[in-house]
Amino acid sequence: MIHPDIESVLLSEEEVQSRIRELGAEISRDYEGRSVLLVAVLRGAALFIADLARDITVPVELDFMAVSSYGSSTKSSGVVRILKDLDEQIEDRDVLVVEDILDTGLTLKYLLKNLASRKPASLEVVTLLSKEGKRRVPITCKYVGFDVPDEFVVGYGLDFAEKYRNLPYIGVLKPSAYQD
Ligand code: IMP
Q1: Residue 78 is part of a domain; what is its CATH number?
Q2: pTM for the full model?
Q3: Model confidence pLDDT, tens digit, residues 138-153
């Protein structure tokens, strides 16, 4: 059953899960013989990191950061504030940042600069979704799950006003759900 606020399903649960398995296999090959510290950006990437970690076969550690981004609007503010920092030291570690969606890239650009200054052995990014057309700053993202069109999407961790994160698929919201 599709949620009544969802106009269309962009990526089904099966499509999302099978792509995550592929990403996990690719990451496992690339990090063969090493361990990887997965760093998720809360809260959107929480579901993705949980599934991805289980599809990676090399040793994995998890850490979390929270930054301010959208509030409850659908436009990127470009204002980034660290609300919760990492618990781990990342110097000389292989760090893989796990993102839910890469939009303008402003959030990630700030984050990568901040993490790079802590001198990790390597620093890469995996994002489940990417809105290539919206990019305002160039970002090197080694692993991309899906390129998606410029529509506001929810589900599988992504929210609108903190709702819809628990949908197992990625869907486009009906305008009536965000226009009062
Ligand atoms: P950026 O700084 O514009 O790249 O924004 C990245 C953040 O904005 C993501 O981590 C999401 O939290 C949020 N975001 C961007 N696009 C969407 C969307 O379509 N649905 C839900 N959240 C989004």
Answers
A1: 3.40.50.2020
A2: 0.93
A3: 999 999 999 999 999 9
